[in-house]
Amino acid sequence: MTEDTLKQREETIESLETKLDKTRDFIKNLEHRIRLEETIRRRLHNTIQELKGNIRVFCRVRPGLSSAPNSRLSSKITSARPDQDALATIKYPDQEGREIEFAHSTETARGSQVEKSYGFVFDRVFQPSSTQSEVFEEISQLVQSALDGYNVCIFAYGQTGSGKTYTMEGPLKSTSSTDSKVHGEMGMIPRSVLQIYEHARELESKGWKYKMEGQYVEIYNETIHDLLGNEGSNSSSDLTGGSSSSKKHEIRHGPGGRTTITDITTVVLTSPEKVAALIRKAAHNRSVGSTQMNERSSRSHCVFTLRLSGTNSITDEASEGVLNLIDLAGSERLSQSGATGDRLKETQAINKSLSCLGDVIYAIANKDPHIPYRNSKLTYLLQNSLGGNSKTLMFVNISPLASNFNETLCSLRFATKVNSCTIGTATKRPIRG
Ligand SMILES: Nc1ncnc2c1ncn2[C@@H]1O[C@H](COP(=O)(O)OP(=O)(O)OP(=O)(O)O)[C@@H](O)[C@H]1O
């Protein structure tokens, strides 16, 4: 090689190195801008959520019974007799999907029929034809908030058989099947976790690393049961088999607004498959309870908690958010249930804890000096996830049957009260350590 060629090559290398340095600087600059934009996105996202209100109510109407009734569904709608299975007259008057109107005829003392109409307005009304994915689209922004470091509570409220579990979990088989129709029926819990996984993975390129831990508990007759526990095991779970533990669990509120439950199983969620296994195990433990306690699933509150801790090694930011998804116990009134003995005790416990939930929400909205969190296990457990530091959404699930009209009216009235509450501005949870 001549000296000239060598020199030429050296010059080319030098020029390429300079170009490479410039490109490196450019990339560094872009990465810095992306990180800044992520911080701005978080702030803007939160502002949008605040403008929408920190407490929102969505109404969802379950489809009617098909010609070949689902036996579980028929047996759940206890007050419906075949001759009363007619659908109520329901109208959805507005284009925006926020209004619902129920028409109901009653007989006067003279035996003539009068039709009365009852109208309600919510943040969103989902008709029976609404799919799980349409419903999730409306809550996905809220789920994102938990990843951004906020506390989020999503409740499903309504009478037994109105579609609370379907909304939250979907049909049980949907969490394990790859069949696309069944998969399409997945409820809010698996969809939330999947979305969180996807976002967390995207955020890795911006320096964020997340740890996700899940817990699933049942509150039955004011007692906490671990739905992920194995009899005789301690705090870690392999999510296989097992039945609900009979251990006594206490709620503890620690520093920095962190709530823990003693002796509870916490599962580190490393894959969507693990979430599906978690839901299957919780459902199994619940059904074990049901056969022993006569349809216990309808008589207990189920709380799925996902704790998301994130750290950013580049910007030194940290966030800790909690997402609670709660399938509340059936809300039917005592007079309707005709309960006696143990059933009466159960119904009283449910009614008390549901009215405590209402009281807590009103007290927060009224800025009362005393918020009665301690009046029920459910509100005490959710103390740090309800109030100024949180975002709350309530689904009011309702039945379309005319025979369920009175219960539907009660549910819609409760939900209207909740909807009239405005909870203070949410702030991020303080970071531990
Ligand atoms: N939107 C829907 N689309 C199709 N099926 C639904 C829908 N909502 C509910 N169902 C079906 O209706 C039945 C009762 O619903 P689900 O078990 O969710 O009621 P629930 O309110 O959770 O009752 P419980 O208080 O007993 O837990 C189930 O068989 C469920 O699959």
UniProtKB/TrEMBL annotation:
UniProt KW Ion transport keyword: no
Superkingdom of the source species: Eukaryota
Keyword annotations of the record: ATP-binding, Coiled coil, Cytoplasm, Cytoskeleton, Microtubule, Motor protein, Nucleotide-binding
One example of a Gene Ontology biological process annotation: mitotic spindle assembly
Keyword tRNA processing: no
Renumbered residue ranges of the record's region Disordered: 231-260
GO cellular component entries: microtubule
Family matches, as SMART domains: KISc (SM00129)
A Pfam family this chain is assigned to: Kinesin
PROSITE patterns assigned to the protein according to its UniProt record, in alphabetical order: KINESIN_MOTOR_1 (PS00411), KINESIN_MOTOR_2 (PS50067)
Subcellular location: Cytoplasm, Cytoskeleton
Protein name per the record: Kinesin-like protein
Name of the gene: KAR3_1
